[in-house]
Amino acid sequence: MNLIEDGVTDYFTILRAERRTSLTFAGRRFTMSRGDLILSRENIRWNCDAGSSLSVLSIRREFFDGLFVSQTADCRIIYDFIHDESGNSEYLYFSCQNDQNVLIAFNALEQELKLSDSHHEKMTHLLMVAIVTELDRARENSLIVPNSTMVSQNRFGKLMKYMGDHYNECTLAEVAEKYGYNPDYLSFRFKMITGVTFSKKMLEMKLEQAANMLLSSDLTSDEIAQSCGFQSRSWFTRKFKERYGESPGKWRKNSKKLA
Fold first, then answer.
1. In the predicted structure, residue 2 carries a pLDDT above the cut 50
2. Do 12 and 134 sit in the same domain of this protein?
3. Which of 61, 246, 40, 74 is nearest to 147 (CA)?
4. Is residue 248 domain-shared with residue 132, that is, in the same domain?
5. How are beta strands 54-59 and 12-17 bridged, if at all?
6. 198-231, pLDDT tens digit by residue?
7. Do 144 and 182 touch, CB atoms closer than 8 A?
């Protein structure tokens, strides 16, 4: 695993921010908090700003053998993402700064990649399975849909991508009409497939975008709340504190200290 300032992704690449990192990735601007991950397919170019720190792990096609497939087949979105052969330059963004399991697995993998003994291949596979499994376990809260593309095989991929692109305004009725569902049926199917209600997922998307804007812009909390579709500052502050444990202003200040 190397600290790299720019490059092009290989067959499967994982990028991890070692501290607050600003970069251009696939033509988009991202501000990553320390510990955030991007899982990427091949042929995507990125470039970090000066002072950024990005660890990059490139994995060859042969790594994803039958054993790895059998151990990760139940990790739905990531499994489909890894095995997508459409040729599209897909990527998934995970907010992992508070996930100690991912941090521990990555640190162990970083050390393992320095070794070359007879156990190396097996340990590398085990650690990658652990990382993929933990990302899938926590994806309800850690997968940042607006910052991700969604693989075509996932049943709700296009629908959730639309939600991510229109997080500040779309409604269940609008999404149901756009994709040809009865609203009640879509509500039922959405909960069954994603594990959360439509309204909860929309709230998560708004809060995720608000957190990103707090780090990457100088907008006030009021301006961010309005931009993200919150009807009042008090409601925004209350929900933000429930999710992140601090008010928006305090979270912004403390997060920038840690960057």
1. no
2. yes
3. 40
4. no
5. antiparallel
6. 999 899 889 988 988 898 888 999 999 999 999 8
7. no
Q: Are 23 and 142 in a shared domain?
A: yes
DSSP state of 145: G
Alpha helices in the chain (DSSP H): 66-72, 76-82, 100-112, 120-137, 139-142, 157-165, 172-178, 183-194, 198-216, 221-227, 233-244, 248-258
Range of the domain at 95: 2-147
Give yes or no: residues 126 and 14 share one domain.
yes
Q: Name residues whose C-beta falls within 8 Å of residue 8's C-beta, 6 or more positions apart in sequence.
A: 43, 44, 45, 46
In terms of Cβ atoms closer than 10 Å to its own Cβ (0-12, 13-18, 19+), residue 185 is exposed
Residue 195 binned pLDDT confidence (cut-offs 50, 70, 90): confident
CA 58/CA 38 separation, integer angstroms:
12
Share of the chain above pLDDT 70, in %: 93
Q: Please state which of the ranges 9-13, 136-140, 173-177 shows the lowest mean pLDDT.
A: 136-140
Helices (H) and strands (E) in the chain, counts: 12, 9
CA-to-CA distance for 189 and 220, rounded, in angstroms? 37
